[in-house]
Write a structure and sequence with these properties.
Layout: H1 5-10, E1 12-17, H2 24-37, E2 43-46, H3 52-62, H4 71-95, E3 99-103, H5 106-116, H6 121-132, E4 139-144, H7 147-157, H8 168-184, E5 189-193, H9 198-216
Parallel strand pairs: 1-3, 1-4, 2-3, 4-5
The structure holds thymidine-5'-phosphate (TMP).
The site of thymidine-5'-phosphate (TMP) has 12 residues, from helix 5.
Length: 217
Amino acid sequence: MTLNTENTARGCFITLEGSEGVGKSTNLAFIQQWLEEQGHQPMMTREPGGTPMAEEIRELLLSQRDENVSQKAELLLMFAARAQHLDEKILPELARGGCVVSDRFTDATYAYQGYARGLNLDWIAQLEQLVQENVRPDLTILLDLPTEVARQRMNKRGTTDRFEQEQSEFFDRVRQGYLTRAAAEPERFAIIDAGQALEQVQQDIAEVLQGFFLQRS
Ligand code: TMP
């Protein structure tokens, strides 16, 4: 599908970001419920993944393996999955005026492959341009939590994929990467303190969503 600013401007594209253990799943369900209560029919999706082929790429990316995974291969697979996800799922939904909510998107690539792995941010920007052209999220909700607290929550979950095996310093860099991106684009990002009581976190998210839709009306 070709990208078209006029079409994509009609829908709304919201992304949820944050390091592991910040409570993305719980709050994603809250966002869905909030949107449905307001009369939207959000298309909930995730990255890497979102379509059968992109989910297969996700499996490749998250599975533990004996060989070292090339950082460039990891970066390109993230964007390969994203290209498929955009063309097959996100763009058609935006074009028909729908509301797409994605659990992670390209800010995760900047945070994980860029800031945490140390890959050149300009390469990521070039791939972003190639794959997405003019498509960017309208609103990005960043759940922020000190790395140690997030790590304790993550450890309670038990399972570990290839990313969750990384050391604390890696997740510190992920967190700082997200915060740097948020500081550079304050009009798109809303930073939520995920260390508060869940009720307060969700109240803050509801206020952000309310403000977002008010601004668009
Ligand atoms: P999830 O656990 O939130 O589903 O995400 C899967 C992992 O993929 C998570 O550790 C973050 C990582 N990831 C990247 O490294 N780069 C990306 O671009 C995306 C979307 C996810």
